[in-house]
Amino acid sequence: MKTIHAIYKNGVFQPLDEVELPDDCQVEFEPRQVEATHPPDLAAVYQVLAERYETGEHDVAARHNEHQP
Fold it and tell me: Best label site of 8, 19, 30, 41, fewest CB within 10 Å?
């Protein structure tokens, strides 16, 4: 049987993927804590957010209220 990855939250183990087991079956496992990883799609978002962009404005803070009603 393949390894099942889960998150423990509020006293319950929640599988991260589909589990191929019949309902109400009893299982036995030995939990092993692993490092949490961000899903690949979030990694790409964090990569973009970490980049610096050249806007052409030298003092962006000076224009802070420009688009306020």
Answer: 30
30-48 pLDDT per residue, tens = 989 988 776 667 778 888 8
Whole-angstrom distance, CA of residue 45 vs CA of residue 49: 6
- Model confidence, pTM: 0.45
Within-domain flag for 66: no
CA 32 to CA 8: how far, in whole Å? 11
| Chain segment 56-67, per-residue pLDDT in tens | 778 878 877 877
What is the Cα–Cα distance from 13 to 33, expressed in whole angstroms?
Answer: 12
Q: What is the dihedral of CA 19, 12, 27, 5, to 10 degrees?
A: 40
Q: Is residue 67 part of a domain?
A: no
Is residue 33 in a domain? yes
